[in-house]
Amino acid sequence: MPLRPTIPAGPFGLPPEMVYRQPEESFGKFWIVLSGILGLALIAVVILLGYSRWNAGNEPTYERARVTTNEATNSNLPANTSTNTNENPNQKTELSTVDEDLQWLAGSWEGEGYQSDTKTTWLVKLTAREGTYLINYPTIPCSGKWILANHHSRGARFEEVITQGTDRCDKNDHVMMEKVSDSEISCKYTRAKSRVVIATAVLTKKSK
User: Fold this and answer.
1) What is the tally of helices (H) and strands (E) in the chain?
2) What pTM does this model have?
3) C-alpha 192, offset from chain centre
4) Is the pLDDT of residue 121 over 90?
5) β-strands 184-190, 120-129: how paired?
6) In angstroms, rounded to a whole number, what is the distance separating the alpha carbons of residues 137 and 35?
């Protein structure tokens, strides 16, 4: 009968199948362990990401109220306080006092003036309306306005400003007016920075 061929022994006297089988089994176990570790690590990453998103979604949100500049300013004002700062109560009181004191002067006035240094006479027309005083000397001719300097209940002092016919009338003269009656006033003219009377006039009220 034929004989089995003799297989040479491996190192350390072990059979060849035992020598080469052990490394293959160890290598397979290494990959199994490595795959398990990687799987666990992947699961842990997924759990952490899921927890982070869940925690971010449950955080409370705060909305900041917006306040405009006007709201912030008005909120600091007391109730029933007006924000208009242009009104001056003292100015209103002063204007009302002037209107009351010079109410008798409102209307149209006419009369004749006499100038002592030139010995001439001229016609005078005065129109007083709502704090405006327009003066006209039609026989010279020249015209302008009177600017109120001071006043009292029965008189006033004006600065005369000639705007038309400036070459025929003196400019910046002062006029002192006194109430004679409800229908008559007297006027005295002086030079600027002088108290010497150079002209006089008596005016009669023609209309209110």
Assistant:
1) 3, 8
2) 0.54
3) 43
4) yes
5) unpaired
6) 120
CA distances from 95 to 3, 101, 146, 149 (A): 147, 10, 17, 13
Asked if 161 contacts 149 with a C-beta cutoff of 8 angstroms, the reply is no
Q: What are phi and psi of 201, to 5 degrees?
A: -155, 145
pLDDT digits (tens, 9 = 90+) for 57-102: 665 544 434 444 444 444 454 444 444 445 565 544 444 556 677 8
Q: Is 52 helix (H, G, I), strand (E, B) or coil?
A: helix
Per-residue H/E/C for 136-147: EECCCCEEEEEE
Better-scored residue on pLDDT, 18 or 62: 18
| C-alpha gyration radius of the chain | 57
Read off the tokens for 68.
């405009």
43-68 confidence digits (pLDDT tens): 888 888 877 777 666 655 444 344 44
Distance (Å, rounded) from C-alpha 159 to C-alpha 190? 10
CB 27 within 8 A of CB 34: no
Q: Specify the 3-state DSSP secondary structure of 96.
A: helix
Euclidean distance between CA atoms 165 and 144, whole angstroms: 9
What residues are paired with 136 via a beta bridge?
125, 143
Residue position matching structure tokens 């089988």: 21
Instruction: Round to whole Å and give the CA distance between 41 and 22.
Output: 29
